[in-house]
Amino acid sequence: MAIERTLSIIKPDATARNITGKIIDKLESAGLRVIAQKRARWSKADAEAFYAVHKDRPFFGDLVAFMTSGPIVLQVLEGEGAVAKNREVMGATNPADAADGTIRKEFAENIERNSVHGSDSAENARGEIAQCFSEEEIVG
Ligand code: UDP
Predict the structure, then answer these.
(1) What phi, psi does 11 have (nearest 5°)?
(2) Is any atom of ligand 1 closer than 6 Å to the C-beta of 8?
(3) Is 78:32 a contact under the CB 8 Å cutoff?
(4) In whole numbers, what is the pLDDT of the chain averaged over residues?
(5) Which ligand 1 atom sits closest to the C-alpha of 11?
(6) What is the pTM assigned to this prediction?
(7) Helix orientation angle between 82-90 and 122-132, rounded to the nearest 10 degrees
(8) How do 72-80 and 33-40 pair as beta strands?
(9) Alpha-carbon 11 to chain mean position
């Protein structure tokens, strides 16, 4: 399988509970390597741009409010099949449906406050990484 890169975000519900280390441990234990990382606080425009694909969904306004409610940790993860591997470690969007041992099963509060974001395809990963990081910030 090819070495890939994917974008990961530790969301405000997780930074508020001071569990970023526990989440990073799960990612690293699955074989994913953190090759870029920064803490940020998104503006409304940042969150709206990042989640533009969801702009017509009923949860869009609440999602933007949540993602701007506190600090986030943005990461580029690298590894074999990193996009699918990260999605597997994250678990289902709704923690009620997430498999045992996944980040969302262990840490998510609900379907919105679900602790992590991960790109859902290699193509989207490329776009999301370019949106969030400069080339100089990525140290593979
Ligand atoms: N979300 C929500 N309500 C929903 C579906 C999604 O609040 O009914 C939020 C949730 O934070 C989710 C994000 O919107 O992680 C993006 O949704 P998506 O369907 O892309 O899920 P993901 O790829 O994050 O699992």
Answers:
(1) -85, 170
(2) no
(3) yes
(4) 98
(5) 11
(6) 0.98
(7) 80
(8) antiparallel
(9) 7
Residue 110, ligand 1, Cβ within 6 A: no
Q: Give the tokens for residue 118.
A: 């991960």
The tokens describing 117, both together, are: 């974001």
Distances (CA, A) of 93 to 63, 90, 110: 13, 8, 9
Task: Give the residue ranges of the annotated binding site for ATP.
Answer: 11, 59, 87, 93, 104, 114
User: Per residue in 58-80, pLDDT tens?
Assistant: 999 999 999 999 999 999 999 99
Q: Which residue out of 42, 62, 114, 121 has the highest number of ligand 1 atoms within 8 Å of its CB and is therefore the one to mutate?
A: 114
Task: In whole angstroms, give the CA distance from residue 79 to residue 19.
Answer: 23
Pull the structure tokens for residue 81.
């099949």
